Amino acid sequence: MTRPLDTFTDIHTHTPGKARSIYSLSPGETPDSVPDAEGMAFSAGIHPWDTEDPDLYRRLDTVRAMAADPRVVAIGECGLDALRGAPLDLQEEIFIKQALIAEECGKPLIIHCVRATERLLRLHSTLRPRSLWIIHGFRGKPQTAAQLTRKGIALSLGPLHNHDVPHTIPTHMLYHETD
Questions:
Q1: Does residue 19 surpass a pLDDT of 70?
Q2: C-beta of residue 112 within 8 angstroms of C-beta of residue 137
Q3: Among 1, 4, 12, 45, which residue has the least CB neighbours within 10 Å?
Q4: How is domain 10-176 classified at the CATH fold level?
């Protein structure tokens, strides 16, 4: 049995047209609006930096609609960022709504998490998701990586990862990206 997203060599990119990659849609984009999108896979979500958007709830409806598109293979990038975006309580509300969309459609959740690991772990414990959660662009310490993977949260490493981390992540919990 393969893991979700195993057919992709890059689970998070903002560069369209890359083979075997998942393109993270930006606000206002749809799979049909991306140039060179033929054969591409996508993720759709509301980034925590965009949680101050006055059309936030309308955008959430758009994410829900795009989740039904078979080209959208993951929900996200969504998450929690203690340094940027709306207050964390609102970010958490929007994150939970997207986590529930991921559950409803059975797709993995691509997560942006900055200085909110404990809050994310609490949400994971409370929501008890069946769909895979993946923190993208993980740059933390080996101890944090171990804590997250023990709880069932996978990690994706980009070019700026902590070089002490990869060997601490179980192979089945490790993904790669270029973002």
A1: yes
A2: yes
A3: 1
A4: TIM Barrel (3.20.20)
Within 13 Å and on the Cβ side, how many CA atoms surround 102? 32
Q: Is 114 exposed, middle or buried (0-12, 13-18, 19+ CB in 10 A)?
A: middle
Cross-sheet strand order for the sheet of 21-24: 10-13, 21-24, 41-44, 72-81, 109-114, 133-135, 153-157, 174-176
Q: For 4-143, where are the E strands, in sequence order?
A: 10-13, 21-24, 41-44, 72-81, 109-114, 133-135
In single-letter form, the type of residue at position 59 comes to R
Beta-carbon contacts of 133 under 8 Å, excluding residues fewer than 6 positions away, are 99, 108, 109, 111, 124, 152, 153, 154
Where in the chain are the domains? Answer: 10-176
Q: Is the pLDDT of residue 114 over 90?
A: yes
Q: Do strands 153-157 and 174-176 pair parallel, antiparallel, or not at all (unpaired)? A: parallel
Which phi and psi angles does 36 have, rounded to 5°?
A: 55, 40
d(CA 139, CA 104): 29
Q: pLDDT for 122-164, tens place per residue?
A: 999 999 999 999 999 999 999 999 999 999 999 999 888 877 8
